[in-house]
Amino acid sequence: MKQTPTDRQALLQEFDERGFLIIPGALSTPQLATLNRALDRYESDFPQDWVRFDEALIQTINVLPRVTDFDCTIENPMVLDLLRGLIGDDLTFEELSLMIRNPSQKSEDIKGWHRDTTRDYNRRMEIKAISAVYYLTDVGESDHCFSIIPGTHNRLVDMKPEEVAAGTEFDIKGPAGTALLFHTRCLHTGRLKANSRQRRTVHVYFSRAGEPRVSEWSDIPARLHEKKDPSLPPKLYSKWNVKDVFEGTGKKPRDLDPNMSTADMLKEVQLRAKRRM
After folding, report:
1. What three-state secondary structure class fits 16?
2. Per-residue pLDDT, 54
3. For a disulfide at 184, which of 24, 116, 135, 210, Cβ 3.0-4.6 Å?
4. Residue 205, Cβ density class (10 Å: 0-12 exposed, 13-18 middle, ≥19 buried)
5. Which of 101, 99, 127 is nearest to 115 (CA)?
6. Which CATH number belongs to the domain containing residue 227 in this structure?
């Protein structure tokens, strides 16, 4: 989908107003086939890497050192072009994770309504990351979906998770290949549906160079930070060795046993974050 400068400006304005954009056809049919096969292999080959929050939600967050298949979701030209318009050439990659939401009779997501990076309401203005979420499967009316409260990144930024009223949410539905670009300061949740099919997503986080790293959960392998590609933002992988990490859900707790698996550590971080809400 080729965009004119006018189209691009309208999309950037829409993001500014609502805090999110839906991008149809961000992944091609061949890309979807490749990514779904790669997800199958990763689930089979590295079962210890997946965090099983409950029967409805499993996630893995340090994929890049083991496989190359998901690099294309970081470097998607359509998404990067919009991100450059929002962030500029200081655009940096932060984190990539894979998520599976299985059929479930649960009515509420384990995380509930929340903002990413930190659950501390008083620090909400420090949340600056933007996330790209790719749907690897079709998401229709009866499927689990990403749900967001428009405008809670700016004009409604003072809204607390417990103040979300039914009917004010916007559900992100679309065929496989759809991408969602959203400001992680927006309140959002996973909306569960009783008769849902399995939903598969890739989640990629971006922020700015020159600031603390938003997340240290995803290692940036040499093949990425040593890449010389003039078509990519010049600082895209510049945080590969940054040690200064934002004090929030992206930072590994220093009080935990360093021998604890990444999966167990991440689960503990999310439990702590939920208790702070």
Report:
1. helix
2. 85
3. 116
4. buried
5. 127
6. 2.60.120.620
Mean pLDDT of 154-158: 98
- Token pair for 53: 């929050």
Residue 35 — left, alpha, or beta (φ > 0 → left; ψ -120 to 50 → alpha)? alpha
H or E element at residue 165: none
Rounded to 10 degrees, what is the CA torsion of 22, 24, 27, 32? 100
Amino acid at 275: R
Rounded Cα gap, residues 228 and 240, in angstroms: 15
φ, ψ (nearest 5 deg) of residue 68 = -105, -10
Task: Map tokens 């929030």 to a residue.
Answer: 248
Q: What is the CA radius of gyration of the chain?
A: 18
The predicted pLDDT at position 4 comes to 67
Helices of type H across 54-212: 71-74, 77-87
Question: Max alpha carbon distance in the chain (Å)?
Answer: 52
Asked whether the beta carbons of 181 and 15 are under 8 A apart, the reply is yes
Crossing angle of the two packed helices 5-18 and 77-87, in degrees rounded to 10 = 70
Q: Taking Cα atoms as reference points, which of 275, 205, 274, 277 lies closest to residue 246? A: 205
Query: pLDDT tens for residues 231-245?
Result: 999 999 999 999 999
Average pLDDT over every residue of 146-171? 97
Domain count for the chain: 1
**Domain with 222 in it:** 5-276
